[in-house]
Amino acid sequence: MRVNTLTITTRQQGAALIVGLVLLLVITVLAVSSMNTSTVQLMMAGNKQFAETAFQAAETGIDRALLAGSFNTKTKAVQPVTLVSTAYGRAKVGSETAFEVRTAVPSGGFSIGGDDTFSAYHFEVVSTGRAERGSESRHRQRFYVIGPGG
Q1: What is the pLDDT of residues 37-80, one digit of tens each?
Q2: What is the pTM of this model?
Q3: Where would I find the beta strands (DSSP E) of the chain?
Q4: DSSP 115-137
Q5: φ, ψ for residue 138 (rounded to 5)?
């Protein structure tokens, strides 16, 4: 009976090992680069969401100021800074309503214009919403209220 024997040469070049290590290095660099890109994209998406939260908080401040109805021609009406809970965290809201000017009632669409019986009192609401990561949104809305003239 004859046994086949396999002889291993003592001089191996090791090319497969070097090629394998180079490929492993390339794959590792690509994986690290992908992780960094994913992290940056996640942070950008989070910042966008916090900016949207600040925007909505500023809109809420305007709504609250208009609902409060404290339209004083002598002093500013300041809504205190409050915390608003949202689906993405908390936001701070504050607003200030200031009287600007008294004018005649606009003639278009009103049957009461023409004399000094009524006046239009113009106000401006400035609302600021702040969320996490320094997101801030400032909104202004002007409006007028018709009241007694004089």
Answers
A1: 888 899 999 899 999 999 989 998 899 888 888 788 888 777 77
A2: 0.69
A3: 77-86, 89-104, 118-130, 136-148
A4: STTEEEEEEEEEEEEE-GGG-EE
A5: -120, 125
